[in-house]
Amino acid sequence: MSHNKILEIQNLSMEFGGLQALDSINITFYEKEVVAIIGPNGAGKTTLFNCITGVYVPTRGNIFIQNPYTQMKEKINGLKPNIITRKGMARTFQNIRLFKNMTVLENVMIGRHCHAKAGIISAMVRSKKTRDEEARIIHDSRELLKKVNLVDEQYEYAKNLSYGYQKRLEIARALATKPFLLLLDEPAAGMNSKETAELMDLLKEIKKDLHIALLLIDHDMHFIMNLSEKIFVMDYGKKIAEGTPEEIQKNPLVIKAYLGENI
Amino acid sequence: MEYFLELLLSGLIRGSIYALIALGYTMVYGIIELINFAHGEIYMISAFIALIFASVLNAYGLNSLATFAIASSLAIVYAAAYGFTLEKLAYKPLRNAPRLSPLISAIGLSIVLQNYVMLAQTSSFVPFPNLIPDFAFLNSISHILFPSEFLILVITTIVMIILTIVIKYTKIGKAMRAVAQDRMMAMLLGININYIISVTFIIGSCLAAIGGVLIASHIGQINFFIGFIAGIKAFTAAVLGGIGNIPGAVLGSIILGCTESFATGYVSSDYEDVFAFAILVLLLIFRPEGILGKKRDQKV
Amino acid sequence: MFSFKEIKKSFLISLWFMFLTFPLMVIKINPETHSILWEWKNMLWVGIGTFCISLLVRFYQARNKKKSLSKKLFFADRKIPTSVIVAFLFFSIIFPFLFSNYHVNIMTTALMYIVLGLGLNIIVGLAGLLNLGYAAFYAIGAYSYALLNYHFGIGFWLAIPIAALLSALAGILLGFPVLRLRGDYLAIVTLCFGTIIRLILENWDELTFGPSGISQIPRPTFFGIEFSPHNVTTYIYFIALGFVFFTIFMVNRLKHSKIGREWQALREDEIACEAMGVDKTKTKLSAFALGATWAGMMGVLFAAKTTFINPASFTFIESVIMLSIVVLGGMGSISGIIIAALILILLPEYLRELGNYRMIVFGLSMVVIIIFKPHGLIGNVKKNYKTDYDVSQ
Lengths: 263, 300, 393
What we know:
The structure holds 3 protein chains of 3 kinds. By secondary structure, chain A is α/β, with parallel strands linked by helices. Chain A is built from 10 helices and 10 strands. In chain A, the strands form 2 sheets. In chain A, strands 6-7-8-3-9-10 form a 6-stranded mixed beta sheet, sandwiched between helices. A 4-stranded antiparallel beta sheet of chain A has the order 2-1-4-5, covered by helices on one side. The longest helix of chain A is centred in the middle third of the chain and has 20 residues, at 128-147. Chain B contains 11 helices and 2 strands; from the N terminus they run ααααβααααβααα. Chain B is mostly helical. In chain B, strands 1-2 form a two-stranded antiparallel sheet. By secondary structure, chain C is mainly alpha-helical. Chain C contains 16 helices and 2 strands. Chain C has helices at 4-26, 40-66, 69-72, 82-98, 101-126, 134-152, 156-175, 183-203, 205-208, 229-255, 258-268, 270-275, 280-306, 316-329, 334-350, 358-372, and strands spanning 27-29, 36-38. Chain C has a two-stranded antiparallel ribbon. In chain C, a hairpin with a 6-residue loop joins strand 1 (27-29) and strand 2. Chain C starts with a helix and ends in a 21-residue tail after the last helix. The interface between B and C is large, with 68 and 60 residues.
């Protein structure tokens, strides 16, 4: 396993009014790792997510990313979400946010757009170059749909898909941006056990085939323990523990804060 | 200084009228998120109805105070009836349609109502009888405050107070606020949504009618087109204050009225509307949710 | 056919409408003499009319319930057959040779509104940005041509790209302040923008000649050749028709391009859009600019067609009609917009025989169409990327 850093969070704090949502978080992520963040509701998991993806600008602290291909390190806090996505981090949402009135294929194509160059003029002129680029986008998007098993539904409107399919489409759309780190905000929430198992297989496959790192937030302990290589535990905006699933299960602090009655 | 006060007063009076209309916009918007474009027409129709009944009563030789009271009451009743009917006819069938569809039916209705009044009555300006009695205690300041202006300020204040009480403390007011917050949840709790929406339209229309009758007796003439302009201004005021917010609508109306009044007084009446709209645009750039509107953070 | 209960209901409805219309329809005040005229027979008409309409609606609803859902969605998600398109094409080309100049003129206006509708569709239908001030861009185009011609003698064909550029700039200018606004706030600011532009045109006499407007604007020429007044109508018709084809072609291309899909994604969900790496600012501004471009070009054509413009041609009602075309057509559907533009422009023109009743009929048709077809006349056609050239590598 390689040990290139891809994301470094240093002393990250976030305040809303007087509320300390995140308190001096220090976390480092490595290449091709599957990491989970767990913690009770209101522990600050989604806030951390939103800081990393640029939805919130953190009050204090720094976030650095290091592109595994170019080894370039840069600070990303304060950048807009779309810029961060272009730098190689993509996300899914806790409450699905698909482009409902667009087809499944089009949803994925939007994800691919950040690597396309065509502007307004080229859209109107439609030169050979633009047409090739367009064909490339369509081809790649279809490949991704094959990966998540949605190719039969490609001309369906996103709103007509079932819940499980919508979740998978969101993953495909995020993958289309060619991330080296994929952030999944409660991917298994609201799924039945069969769908969860399928999702687990899908994520394992993605990790294996695409060599990208995954960062998960979820409440489904079985899902987390099965999938992740490393777990961070948060409570009241602080990181209270980190380690392998086995270590976490034994950690008395974690048991006290969160797992106590569950496992 | 006296000129300044005069302008301020005229701004307050304009603002009061805008507020009466803007409340209808804001309440309807708060509940079903619809810009009720036909709302200005209700105001216009109620002015016409007051005029018609006043003329009839006058012809039968009733004194002016009684005429004013009866004609205005009938105008308010009719405005409520029109508001109720419009909602049932043009908005209720579109409750689950795409967001812009009710806007189109509202625009269509607005065109229909304008032309209906024009055809049924007249396309030219009609003089509105002066029915407001002289208040003796106003004689000393009658050079700056007309009786009609006094009446506008007093009635608007009373109406605002009553409305606040209704919304805050009565059962129907609480139900209205609940529907505005979360229509689905209110329905699950057993609130009759259709009933609440109808009541909202009726209250909004009554307020518009009060505004219509007051301004018509103040200015002294009406035609079928007055609702359109007043409607747009009142809507602007509602947005200025933060659409869906009741005190905001009043505040926005008063700011708008004063801006217009000062712009007319100190710059030129040609650019009165430019100032009004420029204020709105500037405000929305810095406070996109309006003065008192709540910032609605999108949950990610 | 109707049960007693239904008839009773209709009867009550007609009674209610008789009550509603009683003061306005029956008591007619003469504004000069203040005499009162009682017209009781109007009440009878209202009663009979509403009774019949109410029964008709009941009949329609009962029939609709029986119909299967698939039949109701007759138009939705269907490509228009080629034969229909060819027939339309053929008809539009021979149209000026079959009908008098009067009809050609009206049809030219309708064609211009098709282009305006398609242009506004970029802003409202595709990008989902409600715009109630589209006529301002139309005015900017018209005044650009009129003033450039007056001061510098610039001709029609040169004015078109200049006006397009100026309107696009105005679009961006409007776009910047409203970037953060959503939905109805956007509507009111664009409405204000439209009104401000009109008021400036009305009051800045030195530049715009105020309310009296600009007259004697030259008609378009054909490579320097001027047409006789009779032929020029036909010529302008063909220019407008050319614009329609050009616009359909371009809008279609834009819609199925990278930028077009980004507009639609922005309409669906701004946050997800940003998370996918789409630049919100650029995408919104480009929608405003491109939408405005078409209005600018049509403005030039409008000025050249009427040879006289004044601020009264660019009122709020113009913007409303343009928006209605987009919404009635079915937000984003090109063929829907064409049909809606033809209905909304031709209907009032050919209803002139109804005299004063035409605007009532016009408004009522708007209400009726949208109630019976809340998603617009024609639903959006899904793009199948099937036929697209496959990647060659």
